Amino acid sequence: GGSVRVFRSSRMETRAALEFASGVGASVLVYRGPSLGWIDSEANLRGIRVRRVDEGFPVSDHSQALSGMVHMSLPVPLVVENVSHSVRIEYREKGGKLEGAEKIDDRPISQRIVDFLQGVYLPAGFPYSVTTDYLAFTRWRVLQNIASAVMSVVSTEALLFGLGLGKKATAATAAATQWVLKDGLGYIGKVLYGYVAGKQFDHDPKSWRILSDTVEDVGGALELLTPLFPGNFLMLASIANALKGIAAMTGTATRHAIYKSLALQENQGDIATKGESQGVTCKMLGLALGILVSSSIGQNYVRLIAAYSCFGVVHLAANWQSMKCVQFATLNRQRTSILMSAFLQKQNIPDPYEVSHLEKIVFQPWKGFHSNIVLGSRVTEAVHSAEELRSAISLFSGEEYLISVPRLLSRAGQNSVRIVLSEQATPQDMLRAYFTAEYLLSLPESSRDLGTAHKYVVRNFPKFLRQVQDRGWNTQYAMLDPRVPRCKW
After folding, report:
1. Most buried by CB count within 10 Å: which residue of 42, 95, 173, 427?
2. Contact assessment for residue 241 and residue 222, using Cβ atoms and an 8 Å cutoff
3. In whole angstroms, what is the distance from residue 139 CA to residue 288 CA?
4. Bridge partners for 487 per DSSP
5. Residue 2 pLDDT
6. What whole-number distance in Å separates Cα of residue 190 and Cα of residue 112?
């Protein structure tokens, strides 16, 4: 009873065909050739039914290939929500209420392990998010790092020989193994941390940089405890090394964003090189000063703790002051909120220099700024009935997001705006949705009407963008830290 559009490509790779079918809203995918075990479960997660036909099947016979598959026994869902790569929920109306049917990933465990490892070691969106030479570059880097690690073990053993630790090879090898094991446990912590927090560093480089130095100082404090607990040396040293490794990873990740913000002539490479030179020179001076301090302290453990604490305060204070000097022209949650607040209050839009002195840089960056604006909300968190969902879909037709009426969060004691994002939502769509949420929260509770808010955004969002761009802000990609769930309606 409905229309059928057929897209055909005889040379399309199967996984790409599945992505294409999902993108055009297809309900059926027919492929010729040998059976593929993974395709049924992945297609099921996208709401697509699959049929395999033999190699000799005539390509032009669409009606026979689609026979019995186009008409579905279930009503069309109001919204399809992709919660993660492995979970998909279809929402249908039942008795005026929303009823969710969860589709669980039933792929083989081996395929799920491969996808997990790809998420740990490869950038999000691989291979489409990187250049074609990324994989070859990574292979050589893997070989280089393995060789470097082997050389580190051998050189550590040689150092222990040189210090006279162990006249026999077994003693020196055991000592080297203990020392390297400390590093190995630290490396595991770095890998897990990079998987969990990797994409967060771009959102608030300043606060993450301050956090990284704090974590590094905590790691050093744990090392100070090892003389008091010699029996727990390996545990304390491993935790300390993991914290220092995490701090180094965070510092490196945020350093690139900071150097880029300092470059006016695309010369961030030169700035980074000079920064490393400055750092190495300062470390040499610091080592000389450290030797002088250590010689004056002697074996006095209390003086050692006092010296470490004093230099720790200087370390963190200097880092805080340096971060206050950095100006970012990109938009994150906090800078976006500052600009939108100025616009809504009919004030002049501040430029990056002015915002650098207004934004907070000491807070918990993993919580995010304005956590009461939930970008990428679950459907059931945003709406509570099928009627409310239909009303939102109708009101925001033509938009790539849905917004709920602000509700009071019982735990936080503050109003929350929840934004449901579509699969096609772009950074500009997210910025527009965030503008709507900021406008809603700026109104008195009695005046918070979604229809009025949407009309205001349609009239004023383009004006806001122009004013922001005129003040030197880059609005092409706003880093608003959205959650994973995406929907289709």
Report:
1. 42
2. no
3. 39
4. 81, 422
5. 41
6. 22
Q: Which two tokens stand for residue 400?
A: 């790539």
Q: Token match 């590094």: residue?
A: 216
Q: For 131-143, what is the mean pLDDT? A: 71
Q: How far apart are alpha carbons 437 and 180 in whole angstroms?
A: 51
pLDDT band at residue 170 using 50, 70 and 90 as cut-offs: low
Of 69, 133, 34, 115, residue with least CA distance to 14: 34
- CA–CA dist 377, 346 (Å, integer): 30
What is the reported pLDDT for 155? 47
Q: Alpha-carbon Rg of the chain, whole angstroms?
A: 28
List of residues 6+ apart from 443 with CB closer than 8 A: 453
Q: Is the dihedral of CA 215, 219, 220, 225 positive or negative?
A: positive
Residues in CB range of 236: below 8 A, 6 or more apart: 222, 223, 225, 226, 229
Determine the residue type at 422: S
Question: Who wins on pLDDT, 93 or 22?
Answer: 93
DSSP-derived secondary structure letter, 27: S
- d(C-alpha 255, C-alpha 273), whole Å: 12
- Candidates 79, 65, 57; CA nearest to 7 is 65
The one-letter code for the residue type at 358 is L
Residue 475 DSSP label: E
Query: Is the bond into 127 cis (omega within 30 degrees of 0)?
Result: yes
Torsion 40-42-45-50 (CA) sign: negative
- At 156 the pLDDT is 47
pLDDT in tens, 442-484: 888 888 889 999 999 999 999 999 999 999 999 988 888 888 8
Pairwise CA distance, residues 373 & 415, whole Å: 9
Give the chain's end-to-end CA distance (angstroms, integer).
21
Residues with Cβ within 8 Å of 331's Cβ and at least 6 positions away in sequence, in order, are: 339, 431, 473, 474, 475, 478, 479, 480
- E strand map for 54-107: 79-82, 87-94, 97-104
Bin 53: left if φ > 0, else alpha if -120 < ψ < 50, else beta: beta
Q: Lowest mean pLDDT of 40-49, 52-61, 243-252, name the range.
A: 52-61
State the Cα–Cα distance between residues 171 and 22, nearest whole angstrom.
61
Whether the Cβ atoms of residue 207 and residue 363 lie closer than 8 Å to each other: yes
Nearest to 194 by CA among 122, 256, 126: 122
Report H helices in 165-232. Answer: 169-197, 205-225
For residue 55, give the amino acid letter. Answer: E
As a whole number, mean pLDDT of residues 384-393 equals 89
